[in-house]
Amino acid sequence: MISINALSVEFSAKSLFDNISYVINDKDKIALVGKNGAGKSTMLKIIAGLQQPTSGAVAIPSDVTVGYLPQHMITTDELTVVEEVRKAFSHIDGMHRELDRLNAQLAERTDYESESYHKLIEEMTSLSDRIAMQASDNCEAEMEKTLMGLGFVRADFNRQTSEFSGGWRMRIELAKLLLAKPDVLLLDEPTNHLDIESIQWLENFLITKAKAVVLVSHDRAFIDNVTNRTIEISLGKIYDYSVNYSKYVELRKERIEQQMRAYANQQKQIADTEAFIERFRYKATKAVQVQSRMKQLAKIDRIEVDEVDTSHLNLRFPPAPRSGDYPVIADEVGKTYGSHQVFDHATFTIKRGEKVAFVGKNGEGKSTLVKCIMGEIPFTGSLKIGHNVKIGYFAQNQASLLDETLTVFDTIDRVAVGDIRTKIRDLLGAFMFGGEASDKKVKVLSGGERTRLAMIKLLLQPVNLLILDEPTNHLDMKTKDILKQAIKDFDGTVIVVSHDREFLDGLVEKVYEFGGGKVTECLGGIYDFLEKKKLESLRELELTKSPTSAKTEKPAAASNPSPATDSKSDSKPRRSFAEQREHDKIVRRARKKVEDAEAEIARLEAEVKAIEDQLATGATSDPEIYTRHSETNKALENAMSVWELASMELEELQQS
User: Mean per-residue pLDDT for 177-181?
Assistant: First the structure.
């Protein structure tokens, strides 16, 4: 569909791309990967036609449309949200105008047998087909569904776009892009300003509705779920893998190992040849052999090993001084801004050493509650900070608060005290700011480098309660992994506000969900929470009939899964072939969940029976057996709950 031919790009005599060629096919879902500065964003700009290569070309057929979402954009703020998003359908209006023009031409023609007349008919037919494919009789419903999927509520639709932050403006631009339905979507870090639920919605949209997609993202779970092809940019070349990111990581490791072996063998061959030449250079009897070896050496095509980042980020939080048993105790905590109730009756206790996550849609109060804990804003209710609790706070905008006029070294030198001042260079080196990098001005640092610098400031004093608000924004995958391990190793208490599922997985053991003015405690890791939410939201979706009746309709009366469709008939609408196929796929997945849950119940029941048989016969005196009996019974109860939810979902799907 799109062909990239012999593409080369040079900046200041430095080669970014060197003779790169590949093709983007219909239905390709491509992850563009590589280290920071490899040229991923530049590649997207070139394909989008916003930047010209030094040489080579990008061939895009005239009937192929391309949509591009950059990391940063300049936006205008003159319209409401819905007026701005409605621009996505302007191309359809243009096609209608063109069809009217062709119709007017046709009405004036009388040369019915001429070749030009038939060509005009074909042009009109083709245009009519394109309008039929792209236009929708229910554009308003499509618009509503997309905006709500990206986290907006109906009350936002008629608000001025100027009232929204940059992150929400980016969502508006993303909504316009998705509604335009381009043949190729180019997305540069689309999840940076999305919460978990919006990311899941976008995932599903890209998997089921988008055509070709090329995306750059540091969200490993997102690109793993969406993509089926990975293109790595390294040393000006590309490596094309027909697999998702996780599989690519394995294949890349194998490729580097093969290159290293080949490189070592070649280096040995070169060393042996050079030693022979040096040894017999001045012996007349060996002149022919020496000349032959010199020619052989000149002809060797030197193997170049792909860049392996040998710099190592050594991140370790200082030992945490012991705090009281309960660092945070919230009782009926609430917060309002004017007449808007952000949340109310928040009651929970965080124990010493726990690592918990605050999750939920943007604007539901996660960062607000953090500010309450920090004592930065007033609130209602009681919020107690435990004995000897020392808080280390990494704010969402921490990196942007750095003084851009200072160097990296001066930034740390101004906050360091005591003996640490003699070790600033070592500390900066551990964070990949060694050598000349420590003399860089903050204003020239990338987003990831600024985040690392802000993290160093957090490490300069020992704390026992870490509060991290979106700490992974702008961090690449390697640095996120190192930060995650450092938090795991930290022996204090941690609260993480994040939308990065991969980062939270295996890190937190408790999740607090913010939504609907409430703060709800969910035991278990992030994927346990998401699994429960997915089942619940699917049931709620199936039980929703229309925007006006969604809150009052009884479950038995709900029949239409689309919140944007106003049902005026009792008859069930007939599905298209594609819709039926997708529905059947969802039913199969739901049935598999039921079967898996039944198998898990059978396994746990057998385990409980075996333990009870041991207890009945007195075959063991191990006191741990009572603990195992209690834990297994608890797991069995959870499995029964999972089975019940899965069965309800399957039943509702089969009836829909």
Answer: 88
Rounded CA separation 656/346 (Å): 37
Contact 319, 491 (CB under 8 A): yes
Quick one: which of 488, 461, 462, 459 has its CA closest to 322?
462
CB 630 within 8 A of CB 607: no
What is the DSSP-derived secondary structure letter of residue 573?
A: P
Structural contact between residues 131 and 92, judged by C-beta atoms closer than 8 angstroms: yes
CA 304 to chain centroid, in Å, comes to 32
Q: Which residues lie below 8 Å from residue 68, measured CB to CB, with a gap of 6+? A: 44, 45, 47, 48, 50, 177, 186, 188
Please state, for a pLDDT cut of 90, what percent of the chain lies above it: 20
Average pLDDT, the chain: 80
Q: Is the per-residue pLDDT at 539 higher than 70?
A: no
Across the strands, what pairs with 359?
513
Q: Which of 47-51, 328-332, 507-511, 651-655 has the lowest mean pLDDT?
A: 651-655
* Per-residue pLDDT tens over the stretch 461-505: 788 999 998 888 777 777 788 888 888 988 899 999 988 888 898
Rounded to whole angstroms, the Cα distance separating 291 from 380 reads 89
- Taking the C-alpha atoms of residue 632 and residue 638, their distance in angstroms, rounded to an integer, is 10
21 DSSP assignment:
E
* Three-state secondary structure string covering 273-289: HHHHHHHHCCCHHHHHH
- Rounded to whole angstroms, how far apart are CA atoms 59 and 262? 36
pLDDT in tens, 196-232: 888 888 999 999 989 999 999 888 889 989 999 999 9
pTM value? 0.59
Count the helix, strand and coil residues of the chain and give each as a percent rounded to the nearest 5. Answer: 50, 20, 35
**What band does 655 get if pLDDT is binned at 50, 70 and 90?**
confident
Q: In degrees rounded to 5, what are phi and psi of residue 550?
A: -60, -35
Q: CA nearest 480: which of 460, 497, 503? A: 503
The dihedral sign for the CA sequence 175, 181, 187, 189: positive
Residue 626 contacts residue 581 (beta carbons within 8 Å): no
Exposure string (b/e) for 144-166, b if CB count within 10 Å is 16 or more? bbbbbbbbbeeebbeeebeebee
